């Protein structure tokens, strides 16, 4: 079966000043696929993810979701999309942040309904029903009326996931979503992600949970120094390492502990 | 004492002018200052620069000088305002420059991630401000701003220097006839205090309401 990639990143480059963070990155994700990006810090993983949501402007190359360029107008030479157009494109992707970034003045439910009402144009009642549904899916229906400050880190992150998936994005982006959590809270968040994967949600994630990456992903991309250094099935990446020295060095740090 | 009772309606008229000047200044400066403040934080470089310069200049000039500049300085340039509006314009300009700084500080205190989370769910810029940034910024904005409102009431006494009959001017006129400065100044002080005390009490109520941000 010929698979058309839902997310196609081609020759993406991005610099912060003179620091070239991404150097011609190619990466594609098909519908229903879970792709995990691993790599040492500073390798550009998070920047890549943020470019997909146009939280970062990219300097060269293209990012297409379902055929549409993310940050720039279709069929033009890098003319930036209008604010409204950009917002519409951003709503096609969901983002879950390392630091949760819940809206602290809104309850868990309102965190989810805000986008549903203002972006998706749902009625208050529809939005509330959808929010309740997703809060239940992440195991937090009883916390719908709580403010973020009244929730644990794990609970906050699960609300963050509900907020993102309730918008029915085509691709869900997960940026080190367990890095800010106490170890005992990591499991509950990863369980939710595993569930979503099983339901066929297309995901692109950055994580340091190597064991989780191996178990949950269809494909793993190893990034080093702003480039895709190795790519393949979890077994392929985790085992032989393909004679790739940098990957070998990266994985050796995890060997003996959790793998 | 009789004379004070006799003069009271006249003083009340002055009080009304004081309240009117303060209310117009506070309302106008809030709108103008908030708009400029948003420009200072999110605007393109030329806008940021212009607001920065304006705010710094205005805040660096005594209000009194500003009032005289508007009233005596603008007519040669073809803009003649009557004393009331000249004073209101100058006070508004001064107040707006302060509001700009309050807004900048309040918005600046909100973590970057909030704007990004708003972007990520597809909110356009104005909706991000309305639903994400402003509701949080208002908590930081209120305390200094209400402080500034009481300053505006006190500062409004300066309009008397252009001959506008506000509370201050009314008191001076009554003293001019009765030669009883102390009781009248005490009465005036009490009236100013009454306004400002109710304002700051109100501000405490507001602050409590926004401290919990429960809806």
Automatic annotation (TrEMBL), chain A:
Protein name: Amino acid ABC transporter ATP-binding protein
Alphabetical keyword list: ATP-binding, Cell membrane, Membrane, Nucleotide-binding, Transport
Entry keyword Membrane: yes
A single MF term (Gene Ontology): ATP binding
Family under the similarity heading: Belongs to the ABC transporter superfamily.
Membrane protein topology class: Peripheral membrane protein
Boundaries of every ABC transporter domain copy: 7-250
Organism per entry: Mesorhizobium liriopis
Subcellular location: Cell membrane
Main location, first listed in the record: membrane
InterPro entries (UniProt xref): AAA+_ATPase (IPR003593), ABC_ATPase_HisP-typ (IPR030679), ABC_transporter-like_ATP-bd (IPR003439), ABC_transporter-like_CS (IPR017871), MetN_ABC_transporter-like (IPR050086), P-loop_NTPase (IPR027417)
Automatic annotation (TrEMBL), chain B:
Primary location class: membrane
Residue ranges of domain ABC transmembrane type-1 in the record: 15-203
Alphabetical list of Gene3D superfamilies matching this protein: MetI-like
Compartment(s) of residence: Cell inner membrane; Cell membrane
Pfam families membership: BPD_transp_1
Taxonomic superkingdom: Bacteria
Membrane topology: Multi-pass membrane protein
Annotated keywords: Amino-acid transport, Cell membrane, Membrane, Transmembrane, Transmembrane helix, Transport
Residues that span the membrane, as ranges: 15-42, 49-72, 182-199
Keyword Amino-acid biosynthesis in annotation: no
Family of the protein in this entry: Belongs to the binding-protein-dependent transport system permease family. HisMQ subfamily.
NCBIfam families from the UniProt entry: HEQRo_perm_3TM
Entry protein name: Amino acid ABC transporter permease
Phylogenetic placement of the source organism: Bacteria, Pseudomonadati, Pseudomonadota, Alphaproteobacteria, Hyphomicrobiales
